[in-house]
Amino acid sequence: MSDPAFDDDHRAHLARAMRSFLFANRRDGSLTGWPMTPLWRDDAYVYFNTYRSSAKARVLVRDARVGLLVVHGDRALAVTGDAQMVDQAEAAPMFPSMVRTDGFVSPDQAARTVQRLVEGKRCLFRIVARSVRWER
């Protein structure tokens, strides 16, 4: 399933990209950001995982509005929307595909990340896009 917000060019970019920058709103209204590895399953959402106890997870649970700049080569795709923590039961079947296995991280690191997702130490977020546009 593909979301109409993402055209074929967007989906190809998201499938190849290994670098993105996630922006969210702090409690005081100022912006904060983090480098992230975007995960694309071609199901209308961009995913990422993080530690459940991290400041990032707390910020996103409190205020779900996000911006994501997905960079690959000389192109950058801007995605704005809402971050949703995926329920553990829904997320569990996706865990093996929620880690890059294309040489971006070592097999040991990928296995540890999946194990921490299974244990609930890490959690999975998806971004429900409201807008998608090329920045360059």
TrEMBL record:
Chain ranges of the Pyridoxamine 5'-phosphate oxidase N-terminal domain: 26-97
Protein's UniProt name: Unannotated protein
